[in-house]
Structures are given as structure tokens and as C-alpha cells.
């Protein structure tokens, strides 16, 4: 009896030490991620004199100052449009291709997952192959094509290609739709629904978590895009948030509170969106059907 009790204690201690090790690793990993964000936030509310001090202080010693935010949000006519204008440009340039592209990718994914037709596997393979090609390889040909179409200098190169969806989104949504019971689709066909109505009335409502997670992933990627707008938007009227941040904060190159305040302003919308949709995002990336067992 004593031997069994001793083994149970040893087993319990091993389990406790194992759990403690896991928590320590997670805490260290969380600190590695969160500390830089804290440095950005605390620097943005410091005075310029304190922020320029080589001796970093974790808490503002000279009081909290919002001068950095005033400068970051100022619409400086010398360096171009302000950050708020850049944010609005980012929304109207990126939301249409994000929403329409997500719908097109989801419709294609549902077709490949639930509709049997010759050549479906070949189409899927070709779409997956497009994911293997680095975007930098197609950069020059794409620019030449858009230049011939007189699209350079307009938002069209940033909008039109995204309207047709993406291979990555198609693959993810296909895996999700593949988890839907085939009997559900067949029953809808017996009731007289066509393929498109089945997709709209059954496929989309059951895939809301996956759609939200893909919506976030696509929008965040387009929101953070710097190279595309830099390459195709030659005038400041269409500058997105990333270009507006670069141009406006370039005027405050030695003003660290203004630079960090601009970073906080740029990050805030994404953090708010993620916090509001966190439940759906985590549920959607598990790649399972919308049907509960």
C-alpha cells in the first residue's frame, strides 16, 4: 500500500512539474510577444525628451503626454495625406476585394467539395500549385500587365485581382465544406434546391466561423500590405494607411513618441476587430464542419 502511495505521489509530482514547465514556456513566449507592444505603447505617451533618453524607463517619469498622438494624427500638407485619410483609403480599397474574394473562394470551395464533376481534382491541384509560387516572381510581369492597362497610379491593381479569391482561402474553405454531411446536400436537392441555393442557404450559414476567420486573415494581410500600394499608388490621394504612416512619420524621424503613436494608431483597428471576433476566429481555424455531433 505504501509503495502504491509513493508511486502515486511521484506520478503526481511529475505531472505537476510537467505542467509547470509548460506554463513557464508559455509565459516566456507571451512576454516575448507582449513586451515590445508595451514598449511601443509607453513610448507613445512619453515626452520627446524622455523618449530620446538612452536609459529606457518602463513607466513615464515626466508624466503622460499625448503630443505624439497629436502629431501622428495631424494632416501635414507637406508630407501628404494624414493617417486618418490613409485609414479610410485602406478600407475602401481593401474591403471590396476581401468580401467579394471571400465569397468567390467559398463558392469555388463548395463546388469542389460537394459537387461531383470531371476535372475537379485537376482544378484543385492547379489552384494549390499557385500557392507554391512566390509572389515576388510574378511581381514584374504583373506590373507590366497593369502598366499596359494604364492601371498604374490607380487602386485597380490592388482591387481587381482580389475579387477572384485566392488559392489559400479556397483550400481552407474546401476542407471545411468537406466536413458537411453529403446527405444534407442531397436532401436539399430532393427538396428542389439548385446548387447555388444550397450554397447560399445551407453552406454559408453553416460556415460562419470559418468565413470570419478567413475574413480576418485576408483583411489583415491586405491591411498590412506595404509593397503593393508603394508600387502602384503613385499619388498621395490614394495612399493607404501604411504609406500614410511612412510619409507622415518621416517628418518626425527623431520624434519617437510620434512614431510610436502612429504604430499604435495603425495597430488599434486590428486589435479591436480581433477582440470582437476572437471566439469565431478560434472556432473557424479548427477546420471542421459547422455540424455538431
Average the pLDDT over all residues and give the rounded result. 81
Helix percentage range = 55-70%
What structural class do the secondary elements suggest? mainly alpha
Strand-residue proportion: under 5%
Per the CATH scheme, the topology name is MetI-like fold
CATH superfamily: MetI-like
CATH architecture: Orthogonal Bundle
CATH class: Mainly Alpha
Distance between the termini: 43 Å
Q: What is the alpha-carbon Rg in Å?
A: 25 Å
- Indicate the low-confidence ranges by residue numbers: 289-293
Order of helices and strands: HHHHHHHHHHHHHH
The biggest beta sheet is recorded as: none
Q: How many independent structural domains?
A: 1
Shape: flat
Tally of alpha and pi helices: 14
β-strand number: 0
Supply the key terms.
293 residues, MetI-like fold, 14 helices, disordered C terminus
Q: What is this entry, summarized?
A:
With about 290 residues, this protein is mainly alpha-helical.
Write up what this structure looks like:
The chain is mostly helical. The chain has a single domain, classed as MetI-like (MetI-like fold), CATH 1.10.3720. Helices cover 70% and strands 0% of the residues. It contains 14 helices and no strands. The two termini are 43 Å apart.
Amino acid at each position: 500500500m505504501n509503495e502504491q502511495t509513493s508511486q502515486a505521489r511521484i506520478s503526481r509530482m511529475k505531472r505537476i512539474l510537467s505542467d509547470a514547465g509548460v506554463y513557464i514556456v508559455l509565459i516566456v513566449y507571451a512576454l516575448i510577444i507582449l513586451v515590445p507592444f508595451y514598449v511601443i505603447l509607453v513610448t507613445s505617451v512619453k515626452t520627446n525628451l524622455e523618449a530620446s533618453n538612452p536609459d529606457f524607463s518602463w513607466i513615464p517619469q515626466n508624466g503622460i503626454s499625448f503630443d505624439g498622438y497629436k502629431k501622428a494624427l495631424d494632416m501635414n500638407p507637406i508630407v501628404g495625406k494624414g493617417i486618418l485619410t490613409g485609414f479610410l483609403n485602406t478600407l475602401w480599397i481593401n474591403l471590396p476585394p476581401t468580401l467579394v474574394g471571400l465569397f468567390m473562394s467559398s463558392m469555388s470551395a463548395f463546388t469542389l467539395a460537394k459537387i461531383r464533376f470531371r476535372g475537379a481534382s485537376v482544378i484543385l491541384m492547379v489552384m494549390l500549385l499557385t500557392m507554391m509560387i512566390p509572389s515576388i516572381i510574378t511581381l514584374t510581369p504583373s506590373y507590366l500587365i497593369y502598366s499596359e492597362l494604364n492601371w498604374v497610379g490607380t487602386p485597380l491593381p490592388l482591387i481587381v485581382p482580389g475579387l477572384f479569391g485566392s488559392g489559400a482561402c479556397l483550400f481552407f474553405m474546401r476542407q471545411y465544406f468537406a466536413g458537411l454531411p453529403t446527405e444534407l446536400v442531397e436532401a436539399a436537392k430532393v427538396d428542389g434546391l439548385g446548387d447555388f441555393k444550397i450554397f447560399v442557404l445551407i453552406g454559408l450559414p453553416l460556415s460562419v466561423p470559418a468565413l470570419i476567420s478567413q475574413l480576418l486573415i485576408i483583411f489583415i494581410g491586405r491591411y498590412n500590405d506595404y509593397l503593393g500600394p508603394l508600387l502602384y499608388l503613385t499619388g498621395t490621394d490614394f495612399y493607404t494607411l501604411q504609406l500614410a504612416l511612412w510619409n507622415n512619420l518621416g517628418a518626425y524621424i527623431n520624434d519617437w513618441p510620434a512614431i510610436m503613436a502612429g504604430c499604435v494608431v495603425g495597430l488599434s483597428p486590428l486589435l479591436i476587430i480581433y477582440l470582437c471576433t476572437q471566439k469565431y476566429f478560434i472556432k473557424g481555424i479548427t477546420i471542421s464542419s459547422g455540424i455538431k455531433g
